[in-house]
Structure formats: structure tokens, C-alpha cells
Amino acid sequence: MENKTYPVQGMHCASCVAVIEKALSKTAGVHSATVNIATESARIEFDPHIISESSLAERVRSVGYRLEISSEKKSDMDMSSPQHNHMNMEREDEIMKMKLKLIIGGILASFIFFGSFPEWFSFMPAILADRWMLLVLTTPVQFWVGSQFYSGLKLLIRYRTADMNTLVAVGTLAAYFYSAAVTMFPLYFMQGRLAPAIYFDTSAIIIVLILLGKYFEVLMKGRASEAIKKLIGLQPQTANILRDGKEIEVPVRDVQVGDAIVVRPGEKIPVDGKILEGESEIDESMITGESMPVHKKVGGAVIGSTINKFGAFTFKATKIGKDTVLSHIIKMVEDAQGSKAPIQRLADVVSSYFVPAVFVIAIITFVVWFFFGPIPSFTFALVNFVAVLIIACPCALGLATPMAIMVASGNAAGKGILVKDAASLEIANKINAVILDKTGTLTRGKPQLTDIVAFGNGNRNEVLNFAVSLEQRSEHPLAQAVLQYAASIDQKSSHPLDKAIADEAKKESIEPYALEEFKAIPGKGLRGILRIDSASRVEAYVGNRALVADIGLDISAYEDDIRELENEGKTVMVLIVGKEVKGALAIADVLKEESIEVVRALKARDIEVWMLTGDNDRTARAIAKQSGIDNVMSEVLPDKKSEKVRELQEQGKIVAMVGDGINDAPALTQAHIGIAMGEGTDIAMESANVTLMRGDLRLIPEIIALSKRTMVVIKQNLFWAFFYNIAFIPVAAGALYPFFGVLLNPIFAGAAMAFSSVSVVGNSLRLKAKML
């Protein structure tokens, strides 16, 4: 099976979507087809062994639309690509043509309106009131300005289906040809001595008003898709690579995996890679949403399209083209914008029957008014027939959901939140239980030195110095935590231990003793001989309780201090120097700074918060207590995580799972919403519905809030779209005339139709303003 997204031309309303989806779904070899009017695209899952792309295009063409197989949407598309430039030029050309037609149509329609009511505008030249002049002025408006609406007639005649354009074309042509017939054969239509009315103004002004609405709609759609344009525009055009010892500039598309690339201050990083030489501060805000530059050194990963702020460096390209982080982001945003939320199904079902139903209502209206209406009955019947056709607006129904999804997902990407599909945006606001994986999600994911305790008359700096001396040859993660802290002592750091021993550290710098006869004792600790000075050497140990027991020392005097640290879920290492217990060091995977704040925010929304971990219950509950989490799932094996998610789901909970590791992938897939941390594994991100690019837990409440705002806007759009059509179609049919003598002028019907679509798009754009 292949799953591809193609541009589709010729769509104008929700009924177009229904026609194309129905045609593709009934085609052999097509597993599923999702058409989106907001992005003007079709995502098709098909078996290439059964049906070819050209056959798909032919099937779409057979129902009156054009599927561009040569322009399959590419996530790795750059702004300079011929394909992208062609799509931009087509869009700009469409806008310019519509603008020209609006200007000329508006001028002609104004003269037609003035000439149609000479009793109101006596200052206008008498020739404008001549019916032949009105026919001449209306004809270019009808057939040139309104030419795009005649695709609807092609659908009706050739394919026996209809869309919004069919309604407009039939309605305006009915008014135009009737008026033309009256102008050419006035005696035939004469009733008594009264000349019949003409409706050139009706057809001309309706066309201009609806075209004006379409023009605003196209402009607003451009604003809604700005997020994708900005992402595509981030990619640099060239790269400076080293080949045969020389630096040469090449187009980004020519960069190969393994190339050494030079980046200077202020330049964009061309592709993803790892630093080989040098270090710098890199602005990754366009990818992660994080405003502060990130320090990168040798071995550090860099992301294509981010900006090098200060230092120069050389890096090796590891991912190019469609494999880069930026390309994945663009693809996820495109997929989200092109997908459908479950709530849209109702609108799609209604829209599929909408246009045929409107034609039936219009014909019934004409028949009823012609046979039972007042004199002149034909005039009443024609006016109301046109009003019904013109006022019906499937566009508003079709745009209600996809426009809101398009705006919300695009702007979420700008904040570092990648939403995989529209369904996730709909479900997220219903979440009532969040499961947070401990390691790497709630916590930083790597051990840190948290406490230094000196026993007797010693001080913490002395304890640290001895520990660093012993650990300097060890590769163990606990040893690395001690060494990393010692290395950061002279730097500005947010390390949790800094405040505790900063003053002592400043008084006496860390100067490790020479280490001899180093030995790692598996599962227990380290042993070594430290050379204090040229004349003295001392045996020293650092390790756990088992090591202390092997040595035969009594630590009961320090038991309370050690147990207190262990009860906080920390790993305690006891330092022994010359058969004397000098102190203890505690190491733990510490909470992220925002964890407590996020847990509190989720609880405030009445959402149950659970912590999931493979750690022992004591450690798990210690971390949970620190973060304010009441519900703990501890000692859970990796392959059992998804079962824990299922247990909550069986209790009726709508569950979000937040994780970052490969072992979290099954649980992320099982949950209603899987949320992956951006610094986690690719497998976790592929399994999740949402990815937080900068791994900031504070984005979780933001996802829920965004979902709620999006659903409010979608429901508003659907309500007004349904309300508009349900309320005004009967009015257009003349339902109020028997009671109040009120009929709806087709011109006002055209204005209302144009406004309904524009209002839906405008309401969706409010999501963009709320996220700034």
C-alpha cells in the first residue's frame, strides 16, 4: 500500500469533496481517500499493483476535477523548487485574475444597478436605463466575470452531479436569459399594457458579490496556510562543504550524507548533522519554539534550518532531504491539516445531499409560485427560484472544520507542538487522565548529584574532592554524575546542588588527588589508592551499603542521614577514606523544573495524573511526592506499559500517555492520545499523535487548551453554517410572504451567501490570534 497526498484543482465547496471521495472510494485498489477543501488536496491510500497514479487522476477527471499526479506534495520541498514556485505562481495568478474581474465587474455592475432604477438615480444618463444597454453591460459580467461558475454546468450536464457553482450558474443564467428574452421579445412577455420586469442587475450583482466572497476566502486561506509557508521558507538554499580540503558552495539538494559542512556566525545550518569541530550557540526557536539559544559542542546534534548565532564550526551531515527534522515537521503539519476530525463527518454527510436537495427545493418553489402565486406569477416564481439557488451555501459547511484544523495545527507547529491528525485535536479536550512516564519525561533522564553530606568534622567540598579523585577513571553513570557536577562548579549553572555548597566550593577549588591501583567492584562501588602528597598515600572507597559491609565498618551513627536520602528515592554512595567514614553522596534522576507546575495545572483541570515507571515502589513514590502526583504505577516492565494504559481506558477514562523512549511506543499507541517528547527516540515520535519538539511538559496543558479552543470554533462554524442554510432557504423560497408579505431579493441572497463563507474562514483565523 502507498499513501500519498496530491493537489486537487476545481473544488469550490463541500459537495465537491463528497463527489471526489465517493468516486475514489469506489475505485478498485483504493483503500481510502480523504479530500480536504481547505488545503485543496487529496490523501489517497492505494495499492500500486492494482491501480496506477494516472488511473487515479483519470478517475478524478471523470467526475469533473483535476488531480495533479506530477505535483505530489513533498515534505522536503524547498522554496526554490520549480514545483513550489509553480504552485505559488498559480495561486498568485488566480488572485490577480479574480482581482481584475472584480474591478471590471464591480464597475459594470454599478452602472447596471444605476440603470436598472432610473427613478432612484435621475442624475444618471438616460442611455443607462435602456434595456439593450443593460444587456450589453451585463453580458461580459455574466460570461467573463462569472466564467468560473460554469464548471458547475459541466458537472451537471456531463457527470450528472452538482456543486455550488452549479447553483450559482443556473440561478444567474435563469435571471440573465429571462431578462435577455424580455429585452429581445418584449411583446411576447407583455401582460396587459405593463412591460415585464428585467433582472440584469440581479445576475450581475450576484456574480460580483459571490466572486468578492471567493476573493476574500482565497486571501484568508493564504493567511491560514502561512505556517507551512514559513516552515518551507526556513530551508537555506546553499551549503559550504569541504571536499578535497577545499571549501566549496553547493546547492542544499547536492549535499550528501557524510559531507563535512562549514557554518559561520549568522548562517543557517543546511541539513541535520553532528558537530565535528568547534562549538556555538544555536537558535532553534523556529523548530522547538524555545527562544533561548542552545549551546552545542563537538558531538552535539544540530538541526537543519536553525541559525548559528556566534561561533564557527564544522559538522557532518547525517540526514538530508525528506529525512531531516524540518521535513518531518512539514509532513506532520501537512498530514494534520489534510486529515479530518470525526466531527466533520456530519457536515460531509449533509453536504453530499445538500446541492441536490437545494435543486429540488428551488424547482418546487418555482412550481408553487408559478401556479399559486399572485400576478405576475412567472416573475415571482423566477425571483424566488433564483433566490433559493443563490442563498444556499455548502461552502460554509465544507469549510467549518478543515479551516479551524488548518489554522490550529499550523500555529501549534510554530510553538513546537506537532499534531499528527485532526482527530487528536478533537479528542485532546476530552482527556481526563494523563499518564507521565518518569524517566526522561517527568525527570531529566540522567543521574545528577543532588546531595553531599559530610560526617564528623569534615566539609562537603572535601567529600566531593575525594569522590572526584576516586571516580575520575570510572565510566559508570553514577560516577559521571559526580564528575559532571565537579566540572560545572566554576560555571553558572542551575544545578540543584549549587546553592548548597557554592560558598564552600568557592573557598577551595576541586583539585583531584592522583589515583593509583584503581579497581571497580561490580554492583558495589570503587576502590583506589589516593596520593595525598609526595609522602602520603591513603586507601579510599566509595560505594553502597554492600561495599561498606564487605569492608566491615559500622555506619549506624550515620544511618538516619543515609536513610533520609534513600527515602527520597536517591541512590546513596558512602565515602570511606583510610578506614574512616567521611561522608555520603546522593544521586538521583531529578525532576524537570516544570514538572510540579504542570502536574498542578492538570489537576486544576480535574484531570487525573498518573506516574508510570519501572523503578521500585519506594523510589517511585518519592518522585511522585516531589512532583505532587498521587497515583503511581511502579515496577512496570516495558512490555506491560500498554496494559496499564488499557486498564485506565477500561474504567472509562480518556487517556493521554506521555513518554520519550522506545519502550514507551506501545503505550503511546494504545492511549487515546500519545504525546512524545521531542528529544526522545524517533520510534516514540512515530508512535505518538502529538510531539513536543522542545520536550517542555508545559505544552501538555497548552495542547488541551488548544483543543478546547479549536472545538469551540468548529462548533461555532458548524452552528452558523447549519443555522444560515436552515433559516434562510425557506425565507428565499417565500415562506414569509403569506404572513408578512416579505420576499428575499436575490441580490441580498448573494451577499448573504458570500458573507457566510467569509465569516467561517474569519472565525477560524481567531485561533491564530489567540495563539500569538
TrEMBL record:
One CC-aspect GO term: plasma membrane
Domain HMA: 2-68
InterPro entries membership: ATPase_P-typ_cyto_dom_N, ATPase_P-typ_P_site, ATPase_P-typ_TM_dom_sf, ATPase_P-typ_transduc_dom_A_sf, ATPase_P-type_domA, HAD-like_sf, HAD_sf, HMA_dom
Topology of this chain in the membrane: Multi-pass membrane protein
Organism: Candidatus Kaiserbacteria bacterium RIFCSPHIGHO2_02_FULL_54_22
Lineage, highest ranks first: Bacteria, Candidatus Kaiseribacteriota
Subcellular localization: Cell membrane; Endomembrane system
GO biological process, one term: copper ion homeostasis
Family membership: Belongs to the cation transport ATPase (P-type) (TC 3.A.3) family. Type IB subfamily.
Name of the protein in its database record: HMA domain-containing protein
Family annotation (SUPFAM superfamilies): Calcium ATPase, transduction domain A, Calcium ATPase, transmembrane domain M, HAD-like, HMA, heavy metal-associated domain, Metal cation-transporting ATPase, ATP-binding domain N
